[in-house]
Amino acid sequence: MSRDIDGRFLDFAPEVRSTLEKGGAVVALESTIITHGMPHPQNVTTAREVEAVVRVNGAVPATIAIIAGRIKVGLTDEELDWLGTATDVMKLSRADLPYAIAARRHGATTVAATMICAHLAGLRVFATGGIGGVHQGVEITMDISADLDELTRTPVTVVCAGAKAILDLPRTLEYLETRGVPVVAYQTDDFPAFWSRTSGLTAPIRLDSPEAVADLIDIKEALGLGGGVLVANPVPRADEIPADEMKVFIDRAVAEARRRGVVGKAVTPFLLSFLFESTGGRSLATNIALVKNNAALAARLAASLAKPAS
Ligand code: PSU
Ligand code: MN
Known about the structure:
This protein is of the alpha/beta class. It has 13 helices and eleven strands. It has a single domain, classed as Indigoidine synthase domain (Indigoidine synthase fold).
């Protein structure tokens, strides 16, 4: 269960707490996708739909965010609505978490920060859209998402649709391999590319059922290897934007970010919103579909992990 025994930092939603106490299945969800990843009102409607998808697939959702310095594990409807339009919410990664808590700030958790909070809360599975990774132009900017290092140290399984295709995907995979993070493609041989089902890169591992992924997670933990597991689940065929179509828009977005001098935490939100505009909303529709698809798999995985060993 939770390592935060005295409740010093964490506030659990009652349903999340009671489910954890019974050893039931809970799926962590992040909040940066709500505050910095999607426009309003689609951000809030998606967050609700994603929670519903988790339930339908046999688990309890716990959306994680920092509100007035408290780590919320599971948000109320009111908190979720508020988050959807709030303007004073920080984008929190590992480096920002202690400050946000100490200064009683509001913060949306990225993949890295959500993994940390999920682990503190005793959750093992987390669903998102796409992880951050090595950015294009890393030779000059050294921009590598803290999400990658978090996967090397925090034992939470992240279900995503690959790394966002705005990134340098070959280098992202190299980095994960160097740092010893198992990367599992789900029911495919290829590492998926967020909006597209394939990146043209072969994934290191392929598994075809939630039970097989659960086995791998249990064994990794039993071996004491530390760190997380990345599960890359391709967007459903009907919702994908083929990689060659997407590339045109991505190249334009990356060039525009460079021209405007966008750096640091602002890069990913800028690229996502630029793509939303330039694709006439199509990139967002695909993003929504892939997050739901990941939530469904994460719930089935959490349910499989929660089963008592036979
Ligand atoms: N998945 C999405 N949309 C998003 C994100 C993930 O579909 O906006 C967020 C996650 O919170 C992830 C972050 O951690 O993008 C990556 O930000 P950066 O590249 O600055 O590390
Ligand atoms: Mn970055």
